[in-house]
Amino acid sequence: MVIGLALAVVATIGVGASTSTAVFGPFNTDWDGTSELRTTVAADSDTTFELVRQPSAYDEYSTETVALVAAPERPYDEASSDALGQFVDRGGTLVVLESGTAHGDSLLEDIGATARIDGQLVRDEYQHADGPMMPIATAATDHTLTGEAEQITLNHASVVDIDGDGQHEGDVRVLFETSSFARLESDSASGPDSQPVATVESVGDGRVVAVSDPSLVSNAMVDRTDTNAFIQALSADADRVVFDVSHGESLPPVASALITVRTSPLLQVALGIAVILTVGLSTSQGVRRTGQALRTRVLEALASARFDGQSERHRLERSSTRMQRPRSQDTAERASGTTQNDTSGGHQ
Fold first, then answer.
1. 314 shares a domain with 213
2. Residue 138: inside a domain, yes or no?
3. pLDDT for 44-56, tens place per residue?
4. How many alpha carbons lie under 13 Å from residue 183 in its C-beta half-sphere?
5. Which residue stretches does the UniProt record annotate as biased composition, category Basic and acidic residues (predicted)?
6. How confident is the model over 245-279, as pLDDT tens digits?
7. Is residue 9 part of a domain?
8. Residue 243: CB partners within 8 Å, gap ≥ 6?
């Protein structure tokens, strides 16, 4: 019972050290996490999936990389924005998913994009899923980034303002938009109209996708058929997908440690040496224990073999008995080996 309790405690600690409660966190398995997105993309053998903890990592990514930024909790400073801007200028694709905070919107401005996240929530009394605050947006154009998705379901989303003051005015293309009956919730004076919720534009040699609802990548929404098709289309031509966690909550200790090891060749070598030494030490101790046990058995055999005043016949009988055991064991081992071979042959 004590052992069971101890194992339960260890298991609980292990789960706590490897999971997270951060909203849109890649190790958050609750409805508002993105663990399903992480595991789905990572399972694609044709695409490499990574988590970005330092914006400087963008310097090493190729033009076939898609970067996802979902509702950052802190603003990007100048150095971080420059790293992302240069990544896009070289030909990378940046997907910014934002609705409520201004951090994602500021990032769009910093990298020279035209699109802006309005910040006001949109409602649609006519075309929605589980209420007006979950509008259903339809594909506004036939584009590779919409894939096979004909519509996507939003969850307390904002809208994308395509009349911004970026460096590429007029280059914004709407991917998904609400019905013409949608309106901004906080602006009662505005009439119903279709509202853009996902756009794409060229910036430098790359592309910037603005999505006004980060919940699209959450566990609660990403498994919806068309939403999943849209997410897959975003990374269809990529050889690498990275999820930016540099401006969110800290990762769980276990996940953070694993990522540190994977991204540090020096640590990998040190860990490998430590494993070899540990295995070698365990093997050495096992050899010593085996040697001691063998020595004890030999001494016992010699003691029992001593002449104790009995007749030569009895001594030979005892010797014969002792000699028969190895033969008996050897025969059993050969029989066992034959049985295993027969069994393995049967499976083949």
1. no
2. yes
3. 878 899 999 999 9
4. 11
5. 309-320
6. 998 665 445 444 444 444 455 555 665 676 576 66
7. no
8. 26, 34, 37, 38, 49, 50, 51, 52, 67, 68, 70
